[in-house]
Amino acid sequence: MATTFPNADRSALGYDVDEVERFLEDARRAYTTNDTAPAIEAAKIRATAFSMRKGGYSTAHVDAALERLEDAFAAREREREIAEIGQKAWYADARSKASDVVARLERPDGQRFSRVSVLGTGYHPKDVDTFAKRLGGYFREGKPLSLTEVRSIVFRPKHGGYRESQVDALLDAVVEVMLAVR
Question: Alpha helices of 55-124 — where are they, by DSSP H?
Fold first, then answer.
């Protein structure tokens, strides 16, 4: 039986094969139709998660494919939006998003995001602040940073840490801006 991706070892966890195959079929259908409002967009691909199953698809292979798929959808969305509102307006919107990201990154260490309660767990502020400095270098000085690095960053958990949803929203905005300027 042919499979789309290599499988993890029988005793190791991987992504649920059926879920991945259903998602890929939906993505193929969405990409090949000329629907102006597709059911799947780059942001949805970025937020996709699959159940874990022993012997499922290799997570590294599926994640790499999802990144390529997100890039393809983002390029198509960019083309559609430029055709709709014009290149000048589209770049103005991208600059505005980048400006919002930079404003957040310029906040002082330990104050970039709101915190969860001391009983709750969030992202470790030191980890986030360190990565925020790298993001700042990318935006202000053009220092190299790949989409893969942004997409795959992992922060340690910490009681009283930064609110995860806010950090994740910023990272999503960074990915959107990086895809926009490709």
Answer: 59-85, 87-105
The DSSP code for 34 is -
Predicted TM-score (pTM) of the model is 0.78
Helix (H) or strand (E) holding 17: helix 17-32
Quickly list DSSP for 122-175. Answer: EE-HHHHHHHHHHHHHHHHH-----HHHHHH----EEET-B-HHHHHHHHHHHH
Beta-carbon contacts of residue 103 (< 8 Å; ≥ 6 apart): none
Q: What are 166-172's contacts with CB under 8 Å, separation 24+?
A: 166/113, 166/114, 167/113, 167/123, 167/128, 170/101, 170/104, 170/113, 172/43, 172/46
Tens digits of per-residue pLDDT, 81-98?
899 999 899 889 889 999
Check if the beta carbon of residue 87 is closer than 8 Å to that of residue 125.
no
pLDDT 10s digits, 3-47? 789 999 999 999 999 999 999 999 998 888 866 666 788 889 988
- 32-to-54, 122, 164 alpha-carbon distances in Å: 32, 40, 35
Q: Which of 24, 28, 27, 11 is nearest to 62 (CA)?
A: 24
* Alpha carbon distance 24, 150 (integer Å): 23
The first and second tokens of residue 145, run together, are: 């940073």
